[in-house]
Amino acid sequence: MTHAHSAHDLLLRANKITKQFGGLTAVNEVSVDLRKGEIHAVIGPNGAGKSTLTNLLTGDLPLTSGHVTLNGQDITGWTPEKISRHGMGRSYQKTNIFRSFSVWDNVRLSAQSRSQPMPFNPLAWLQQASHMADVNKRAERALELAGLQNRRQAMAGAASHGEQRQLEIAMTLATEPQVLLLDEPLAGMGLAEAESMVQLLLRLKPLHAMMLVEHDMDAVFALADQLTVMVNGQVIASGLPADVRANEGVQAAYLGEDH
Amino acid sequence: MSDAHAPLETLPRSLKILLGAALLALAAFPFVGTDYYLQMVTRMMILAIFAMSLDLLQGVTGLVSLGHAAYFGVAGYALAFLTPPGEPVSLWWTLPAAVGASALLALIIGFLVVRTHGIYFIMVTMAFAQMVFYAFFDNKVLGGSDGLYINFKPEAVLFDLENKTVFYFFTLALMLLVYLFLRRLLWSPFGRALAGIRVNEHRMRALGYGTFNHKLAAFTLAGALAGLAGFLWGAQSGYVNPELMGFHMSAHVIMMVILGGMGNFAGAIVGAFSFEYLLHVFKDLPQVAGFHLGKHWQLWMGLFIVALVVLAPRGILGLLASLLKDKSEKQGTQP
Amino acid sequence: MDFVNFLIQLLNSVQYGLLLFMLAAGLTLIFGIMGVVNLAHGSFYMLGAYLAWSLAALTQSFTLAIILGTLLSVLFGLLLEWLLFRHFYKRDHLDQVLLTFGLIYVFEEMRSILWGDDVHGVTIPDVLSASIPLTETLSYPVYRLFMSGVCLLLALGLYLLISKTRLGMKIRAGAFNHEMTEALGVNIKLIHALVFAMGVGLATIAGMVAAPVSSVYPNMGSQVLIMCFVVVVIGGIGSVKGALIAALLVGLVDTFGKVLLPQVAGMLVYVLMAIVLLYKPEGLFKN
Description:
The complex is a heterotrimer. By secondary structure, chain A is of the alpha/beta class. Chain A is built from nine helices and ten strands. Chain C has one domain: ABC transporter involved in vitamin B12 uptake, BtuC (Orthogonal Bundle). Chain C has a two-stranded antiparallel sheet. Chain C starts with a helix and ends in an 8-residue tail after the last helix. The A-B interface holds A 58, 60, 79-81, 84-85, 90, 96-102, 105, 109-110, 112-120, 124-130, 132, 153, 155, 171, 175 and B 3, 6, 181, 184-185, 187-193, 195-196, 199-200, 202-211, 213-214, 216-218, 220, 331-332, 334.
């Protein structure tokens, strides 16, 4: 699979980003490009720095050095909320939902962030959140994409693991981001659920630039247009999946393991 | 916050009916109660407003402030400073001025403390409130430890606040207004965001919410409403002293909110009434075998609080709700 | 301010700071390791002072009073930990705040019932009652140097315990990861009890040692508790080093503030805390 890359497609560029914790270099001069219509998978053994990389891109961790550009804007040093509003969405490996709210309320609250009035505006204190039409529309769409329409009344904390993973994605989609950073969306899923998720990700692909951190190699090779392999904080190979797969260094370091 | 404190945002219908009946009783009370009890219930309603203001911060947003009394006391003092010794002052500008003073103080302190989390937040809110306490306690200019007197109730022109029954209904009206306002706010986009912050602030930030500003707004609004209560307290009692801003007052209002049940504002009202009533009961305990039980009311209150924390973390309304167990009521419907 | 006065104020600052450290160290350890906030921590300080007063009167020996008093308080602290506190390590901060606030009430009343509401003095033992002359007119009390000495010794002991002993290692491990430490065979319940006892002991000794200087009076615990909180916030929760530096800072700001800017002296420490909050909301030495 080859793609003609054009400058328009490039939505996120991480340029030689590094993260040091005291003496430990968790992420070492990693560069990643995310283009619209592409899924860029990042794989590597545990402790390779994949989660740290994700957290650097979302603004949860400050960079030690390097730059990140989102939609043409340098977002280095921005707060997570500012980055999110600028078009980034992120789903978590460890389900990070509002457990005591219903499934619908989870997605609705996520969608509401894009229509949130200024907190110090007294008029906004008298509005009814459930009557915000644009919010409801966005939430409904995200709910449908994730396939949770029939579970909207369920308490999020009481839903099944697979449903919670779907909710994870729904919440991320409800803010209508252009860039999606997905942290192990298939984690803990059974065969049928994983297949649904893969189909969902393929449906999302044309409209988003996606980075996928995953351990499920079958899914990775079914989905990825670009593949980056990280070991010990460094990129040891990056490019088309077929090429990376053939790379001997990668085979030795990582892909040699059984799955 | 743990599930033990998961708030009863939506009240079951049976509970709402009970509360409606209580409201009617409150409206009818002045016609059957004596002066002494009229004063007591007025005071309870003022504390109910105070408790509701904390519920916004604690029950809804999940911010445990150990210094909320600072904003309560400051407004009372504002009225004291604005009332000349020889004549009353107009209600219509002193009320907003006092509330504004509390709001401003809350905004300033909030800006400093809202950036902290968890136990830090608890400690710094307490510390700044103590700072305010000592500012008044140590300075004769501000009244010192003796406090200040307010010789006349504010003048309303349209009605006479010196009349105890009129003052009672004025307070009742304000309490109702605050309740309705806060219920409305709870289901507004702002209120929903605050609830989200309570449940999972990290995710709220990741979703793009400016949680600092939301918390600051909640802190300021809660301070303003506490100021409303403080103004009424000063007006009713005619006397303010630094204890109104003290640690004990802050702890008492936390207790009221816990006692009643957090997150729905009705619990705050129930808690305020119950706590004040309990205080009276403990203070009025008789002498038994030479040991004056009432004098040591703090002991009974302390033991009661310990028992409450261990046995009934969701407060009175929580207990009632599980007892009444309205099965036909669905979660998620609005009042 | 001339040099001698400066020296006196400096010594006072250090003495006050070290006293605060004794209390803050216990509080920050208990919170850092068990995650429980204890508003009644000041009550142990008060307990110490009252025990010093009554035991000194009973035994006519200050030394004996301190030993006995510490023993009694630690036992009391252990009882409290076993009965109440250990069930609250996993609970909300709010529950802990309420519980310990209720305890403050109970302790204040017990104090009132057992010892009454009057203010009492504790006499400085003769051997420590001298003063070191600094100039013709000014001298510095030996007792205050003794206070600083005791606090310094205990601080050193705490440092050695935490960083150089196996017990200290277990304590630090427990703060880091309960389950893992337990899995490795360490009796985490015992560690918690020990840490709690240490905190109580430090607070009590502080109260005892301070009693002759500060007098013994109702509510003395709450006043010192606030300063303690300020120290922990500035220093950083869980950091004993932070508590020491913050305590000395607070001691300096408060003491010199009272001398140089008496009108705003009471506010200065809070201004210091506000400044720290603006730049380091989690304290100077976050653990």
